[in-house]
Amino acid sequence: MRRWPVTLPVIPLIFGYLFMVGFLTLNQDRLLYLPDPTPPSAANLRSRTGPSLVPWPPDSGPAFRGYVRAEAGGAFHGTAVVFHGNAGSARDRAFYLDALERLGVRVILAEYPGYGGRDGNPSETTLVADGRETARLARMAFGEPLWLWGESLGAAVAAQVATDPAQPADGLVLITPWYTLPDLAQSLYWYLPARWLVSDRYDTRAALQGFRGPVAMLIAGSDQIVPPDHSQRLYEALPAPKRRWLFPEADHNDWPAHPTAAWWGEAIDWLRATAAPAAGGP
């Protein structure tokens, strides 16, 4: 049998590939988590185009867990805890307050450990555990119903928080969610064994298999970060009740976020009409 020698030009390519695999493996947290570590201040809590914010819970100092509107008025008939995407901080998502409070929903913008001046290092374990405590405190402070909203990375966090056996959420809204993080990583980095390199799994499909509450989903049809087939595959795997909003022209960061977009009200009306008191139960 004829042997094909490994020529000298190929050897640097092999070592270069192995170096790239090692670098991405060791630095995957820096690629997945992109926090703005700046702590809250009078300047960055003051609004230029949206609502001004204050840390929540009130008078919690450095132990704050998120943000609410500085002067929230009106009657609320439910609370939404919002888990944001991987970049920036919760302060960047003030548009959720404009969209949901006008529908009678109180909004808490949850902040992650390691983001926005909070102590800690982001990981799947820390984000989920911290999110469950934030949801517990929100329910204790405001009662029911409690809905969880998650965007991209936040959708994966919200899915696991919602299925806390001690205190499941009453409903869930997932915006541009993925199926599992290893599947997403493999599709984006097809030239690497990415599925086996990812340490944080964020298996949204598995997390929601036992969830009995309503799940709403927004899919961006032109998403270049979380391809829409990943979100659609997750939607098909979910048990009922579920409902989907598909925006074919939307990309990952330009889905209809304007407060007057019809889908906000449709989602809230559907969650209220599809209430499941025993969500997440056996």
How would you explain this protein's 3D organization?
With 282 residues, the protein is α/β, with parallel strands linked by helices. It has one domain (10-273): Alpha/Beta hydrolase fold, catalytic domain (Rossmann fold, 3-Layer(aba) Sandwich), CATH 3.40.50. The protein is 35% helix and 16% strand. The chain is built from eleven helices and ten strands. It has an eight-stranded mixed beta sheet, sandwiched between helices. Helix 5 packs across helix 6 (153-162). It is globular and about 65 Å long. Mean pLDDT is 87; it is low at 277-282.
What order do the helices and strands come in, and which of them pair?
Elements: H1 10-26, H2 28-32, E1 34-35, H3 42-45, E2 53-56, E3 66-69, E4 79-83, E5 87-88, H4 95-101, E6 106-110, H5 124-142, E7 146-151, H6 153-162, E8 171-175, H7 181-188, H8 194-197, H9 204-207, E9 215-220, H10 228-237, E10 242-247, H11 262-273
Parallel strand pairs: 1-5, 4-6, 4-7, 7-8, 8-9, 9-10
Antiparallel strand pairs: 2-3, 3-6
Helix pairs in contact: 5-6
Helix content: 25-40%
Number of helices: 11
Give the averaged pLDDT, no decimals: 87
What letter string, H or E per element, gives the SSE order? HHEHEEEEHEHEHEHHHEHEH
Q: How large is the share of residues in beta strands?
A: 15-25%
Alpha-beta classification: alpha/beta
Largest sheet: 8 strands, mixed
What is the number of strand segments?
Answer: 10
N-to-C span: 62 Å
State the domain count: 1
The CATH homologous superfamily is named Alpha/Beta hydrolase fold, catalytic domain
Assign the CATH class: Alpha Beta
The CATH architecture: 3-Layer(aba) Sandwich
